[in-house]
Amino acid sequence: MVRVTIWNEYCHEREDAAVRAVYPDGIHGAVAAALGGQEDVSVTTATLYDEAGNKNPDCGLPATLLEATDVLIWWGHVRHWDVDDAVAEQVQQAVLRGMGLIVLHSGHMSKPFMRLMGTSCTLTWREDGDMERLWVIDPAHPIAAGLDRYFDLPNEETYGEPFDIPTPDELVFIGWYEGGEVFRSGCCWRRGLGRVFYFQPGHETFPSYYDSRVQQVLRNAVRWAQPTARKAELGCPNVTKPTAKFDE
Amino acid sequence: MVRVTIWNEYCHEREDAAVRAVYPDGIHGAVAAALGGQEDVSVTTATLYDEAGNKNPDCGLPATLLEATDVLIWWGHVRHWDVDDAVAEQVQQAVLRGMGLIVLHSGHMSKPFMRLMGTSCTLTWREDGDMERLWVIDPAHPIAAGLDRYFDLPNEETYGEPFDIPTPDELVFIGWYEGGEVFRSGCCWRRGLGRVFYFQPGHETFPSYYDSRVQQVLRNAVRWAQPTARKAELGCPNVTKPTAKFDE
Amino acid sequence: MVRVTIWNEYCHEREDAAVRAVYPDGIHGAVAAALGGQEDVSVTTATLYDEAGNKNPDCGLPATLLEATDVLIWWGHVRHWDVDDAVAEQVQQAVLRGMGLIVLHSGHMSKPFMRLMGTSCTLTWREDGDMERLWVIDPAHPIAAGLDRYFDLPNEETYGEPFDIPTPDELVFIGWYEGGEVFRSGCCWRRGLGRVFYFQPGHETFPSYYDSRVQQVLRNAVRWAQPTARKAELGCPNVTKPTAKFDE
Amino acid sequence: MVRVTIWNEYCHEREDAAVRAVYPDGIHGAVAAALGGQEDVSVTTATLYDEAGNKNPDCGLPATLLEATDVLIWWGHVRHWDVDDAVAEQVQQAVLRGMGLIVLHSGHMSKPFMRLMGTSCTLTWREDGDMERLWVIDPAHPIAAGLDRYFDLPNEETYGEPFDIPTPDELVFIGWYEGGEVFRSGCCWRRGLGRVFYFQPGHETFPSYYDSRVQQVLRNAVRWAQPTARKAELGCPNVTKPTAKFDE
Q: Does the distance separating the beta carbons of B180 and D162 come in below 8 Å?
């Protein structure tokens, strides 16, 4: 059983009727629906703000929930800096101890992602509703399973290079935009014992999370990011000289 | 079901009594035993030479067998150049079309491995029976599952750097030798649709393939290397302009 | 002084008046002109065929020339398989011993490049004369020095992903095509002691090698690819146990 | 002219007579001497504490100094957490904007390095004064220029794997310790527009920075890490649709 927690800052949907019309159950609700109906995946949602716009305790991510999460999905945009540093650090540490992290769209500037990358994570952007075509660069990658050579989204926010990230350990998708940009839209990194996947689509004003191919990517990514090993804590131990470990 | 074929040049064991004493069923037999007893793994062996020392047709690897192989394990040493170029090319193409390849020990100079790497694959070597300590560099890697921080082999052939290979996509083990060398003893590459794992231990005069930790690595590597996607053939197609593929 | 040799198969320009009109001095001549006028760069050209269409001895690349080459630039297209295997192997070995190699456009299927990559090097292609926009992915890379965020070529052959190459050690350019494709148009690899750069532009029917930004890339790439170390030969030496090398 | 600043927390040498006996001019002084006498390198030193043990303003690194630094060398050990977060962030940002950073020995747990890596940067350690043998893994790497296949330090602190770092973009050295450990002792990363090199030797109680080969590595690393491009600030600009940039 893979235990997935979907975290959303949950501002646009509450505050903007146009966004609410696209995502009446919140972006977290749409992503949860995409992952639902799989026997071996359990889904929890968490938000920075509650329905009334009050900030949730522990930013919606108490330590107990984080401990019980195998893969965390993160959507944030306009309130990155309202996430407490302590929570961002706990997410970072959880990844290093083995949790998977899937960062969506504008989450490229979220505190947990920026901490894990170590770079500015900057890019260029335009909100012209360009068509985005996502090309599969690595057809054997598990995150691309079941996809054709490419797929298109009728409208997305345009993200452009340079995307200031460490070279991805695995590059799965490159996005083409009708207005003339390219973007490394699907990138994988291994960090500590955990795995991180960044996926570009998902602007709040467009229904990308209802697209069946985007949903396929999310389902694949959850399986790819699930922990292979976990550790209770990280440390820098003083050790004794190693002794021979022969097979008996 | 993962279909594994273990290929061995099968010279030392036939020609040298000391080696035969260590591997009476051949190195391929010892590796087969290490992989046996797993419900979802089927094992076939193939050799360059038959018991009488005659070269087998198709170097023991007819196209039909290669087609029916998910993961090929390769052990060769003193007759690399007796493997037909056509067979080496078929192995390379099979990997590019999705087959997994696990190259053992002196197989670093085998034709299939050299073709897939593109480098000289040279290293330095000593046959002093040094102890080798294999350190796990990437504890979350599936090939290291179930292992401690390190394990030791009482005697191995010493391989030394520089090992002229492309930078591994994933570095799993570094070997320490009591005589003073280090070696990148466990290396992963993605090539085409296939995966390649090189593993240092396995000199013909030492019983490394009976070691439980080496066997664990082999079992893990088979699972890691199994195909995620396969293709009937490779080509460079002339295409028409892509048309929009929206979700329906 | 960097000694550059520009190798061209030299078929299109001799055989096709339309191509000759674009490259009256041959593609090798245009590339040589782009590199000329630099005090510390000396340029030689070599071709597979002579003006009369006869194949040159040693495919135009005698061992003495290869020995005297720091960086080899390669353009080939329709006669890849007319390059002798022995010559292709000499080029591969020269790279592994430290020579730089810059492979242009359709050279992705040339023997030396395929040998160095180990993969099928396949891609998709269209000859519709699309505009190509080359985005700088790594603005600090020496090969991108002096370039803006992107530059455009009015017409190029369209190359599309998946491009079956090992993950580049450094990805410098991604190409955007107006017809809808993306392509990893500028890729770097380290192989042995040498460096390899692949650059997409340069279809024989388009004047890409007269473009000042393409020329800037070529000049930058020559400097990047020049040898840092060279070796007389490659080998796999049997060594003695290392002895301590303390500083005196 | 490469402008190098050598930063040292400068505690051990002031507080411990045994260390002061090894490094009477401070570790920064020994590193400065190693870099001195090169016409095109200018060297400045900076320390966290002054001679009297008072913390210097701006941790010894005022913004003006950082702006005037091409390559920053960092040695810290027991007061990592006394470095202000603001200073650590300024160093990180300077690297992302193009400055080179060379992190020595126990600096693996320094704030700037940890921020740039995004991982825990943990390792195992022993203070048994083991001999360390540093093997050159990448003989063509500029940082290994002028070195033999390996060199030895009679005594060093033993660092062991797993070293929790992102996979290095380039791995230059692997250390072998007589007590049985291996360690990725020389690692390169590109981050933003800057370059980072980590080098293991340099425990405060051993005279490693007087070793001619260590000094060679430091000189090489300074040249490798110097900026290729620099930027005044980092940002995430809203852009307009790109327009064609043809060559005139």
A: no
Pairing of strands D124-136, D170-177: antiparallel
In the structure, what pLDDT confidence band is assigned to residue C214 with cuts at 50, 70 and 90? very high
Name A8's Cβ contacts closer than 8 Å, sequence gap at least 6.
A26, A27, A28, A31, A45, A46, A47, A48, A75, A76
Nearest CA in chain C to A123: C137
Please state, as a whole number, how many other Cβ atoms lie within 10 Å of the Cβ of residue D85: 11
Chain A residues with CB under 8 Å of C119 CB are none
| Structural domain count, chain C | 1
Taking CB atoms and an 8 Å limit, are C176 and A167 in contact across chains? no
pLDDT of B248 higher than 80? no
CA D31, CA D28: separation in Å to the nearest integer?
A: 5
Q: What is the phi/psi pair of residue C200, to 5°? A: -70, -45
| Sign of the C-alpha dihedral computed for residues C75, C77, C79 and C82 taken in this order | positive
Which residues does chain D have within 8 Å of residue B167's beta carbon, measured at their own beta carbons? 170-171
Do the domain assignments include residue B136?
A: yes
CB–CB contact C211 D140 (8 Å): no
| A49-108 residue pLDDT tens | 999 999 999 999 999 999 999 999 999 999 999 999 999 999 999 999 999 999 999 999
- Neighbours of C (≥3 Cβ pairs closer than 8 A)? A, B, D
The count of residues in chain A is 248
Residue with tokens 């419900």: B39
- Domain assignment present for residue A136? The answer is no
**ipTM of this complex prediction, to 2 decimal places:** 0.96
Q: Are B231 and B99 a contacting pair, CB within 8 Å?
A: no
B158: distance to nearest CA of chain C, Å?
9
CA distance C73 to C198: 10
Instruction: Give pLDDT, residue C232.
Output: 84
For residue A228, the chain B residues in CB contact (below 8 A) are 140-142, 145
Q: What is the pTM of this model?
A: 0.98
Instruction: Provide φ and ψ at A86, rounded to 5°.
Output: -65, -40
Report if residue D165 sits inside a domain: no
Would the CB atoms of B242 and C122 count as touching at under 8 Å?
no
Residue A179 lies in a domain: no
CATH for C59: 3.40.50.880
Per-residue pLDDT averaged across B230-237, rounded?
88
What confidence score (pLDDT) does residue B68 get?
Answer: 97
pLDDT score, position D248: 60
For residue C151, report the phi and psi dihedrals to the nearest 5 degrees: -145, 160
Cβ separation of D176 and B175 shorter than 8 Å?
no
Chain A residue with minimum CA distance to C177 = A180
Mean pLDDT taken over chain A: 97
Task: Provide the residue range defining the domain that includes A94.
Answer: 2-119+184-225
CA angle (B241 as vertex; B235, B247 as ends), nearest 5: 100
